[in-house]
Specification:
globular; alpha+beta; three-stranded antiparallel beta sheet; 11 strands; about 230 residues; six-stranded mixed beta sheet; about 30% strand
């Protein structure tokens, strides 16, 4: 009876001791501490960032440096300006803008000294007209406005000597009416003007952008040489 009581009391004790021994054994087996965790490295917040370091705004940019536009493929380019050689006589004839109103026509011309020496003019140029086939046009060329119109002082002023330095230009004008006064007489249009600047000088030919449409009047007024504007 005594043995049963002892056995009944010792069994829990043994269980308790066994559990304690298991715990101690587990503790003995885990006596080596675990390796320490790695220290946290630099992060975007603690280290240099795009905001704290050099940025596109603080560093050199395309806007702060010289801008070089990129070439455009296929963009049209202006053709090179070519200057015609100076004619044999050392002067060049140029057609200027004209005026036309109610059948009255006024045209203006320029003579440029493209040579290397002064060029002297006096009086009136010698002028004639030609048609599309380069045939002479019959026309009476009279000095001044020739009664064709009034109020044209440039055509009616007295002639005077004009000396052109190299690069300078002189001027003269012509006036006519585009009228058909006789039905039996065909109208005439001249597209080429021929000018002798001074007696004996080489003649200059010029194809006109605005032709001289004389109708059948057969009359043209011619002004004297005028000096360059001052």
């Amino acid at each position: 009876m005594i043995a049963k009581r002892w056995m009944g009391r010792r069994i829990p004790g043994l269980v308790t001791a066994g559990v304690l021994a298991g715990v101690l054994a587990g503790a003995a087996g885990c006596s080596t501490p675990p390796a320490p965790r790695a220290a946290p490295g630099p992060t975007a917040a603690s280290g240099p960032t795009a905001a704290s370091g050099p940025t596109a705004a603080s560093g050199p940019t395309a806007a702060s440096g010289p801008a070089t536009p990129a070439p455009v493929r296929g963009a049209p380019t202006a053709p090179p300006v070519t200057q015609e050689p100076c004619p044999e006589g050392g002067v060049r004839l140029v057609e200027l803008a004209g005026n036309a109103a109610m059948g009255l026509r006024v045209a203006e011309f320029q003579l440029v000294n493209c040579g290397a020496q002064p060029y002297v003019l006096e009086g009136y140029p010698q002028l004639s007209l030609r048609d599309d086939r380069n045939d002479p046009v019959e026309v009476a060329v009279e000095h001044g406005s020739a009664g064709i119109t009034t109020g044209t002082p440039d055509l009616d002023e007295a002639p005077r000597p004009v000396t052109l330095a190299p690069g300078q230009a002189a001027f003269f004008g012509i006036v006519w009416r585009n009228l058909v006064t006789e039905s039996a007489t065909p109208a005439v249009t001249a597209r080429i003007v021929e000018v002798e600047p001074r007696p004996g000088a080489p003649r200059l030919w010029l194809r006109l952008a605005a032709p001289v449409d004389l109708g059948n009047t057969g009359k043209l007024g011619l002004g004297p040489w005028r000096p360059p504007a001052r």
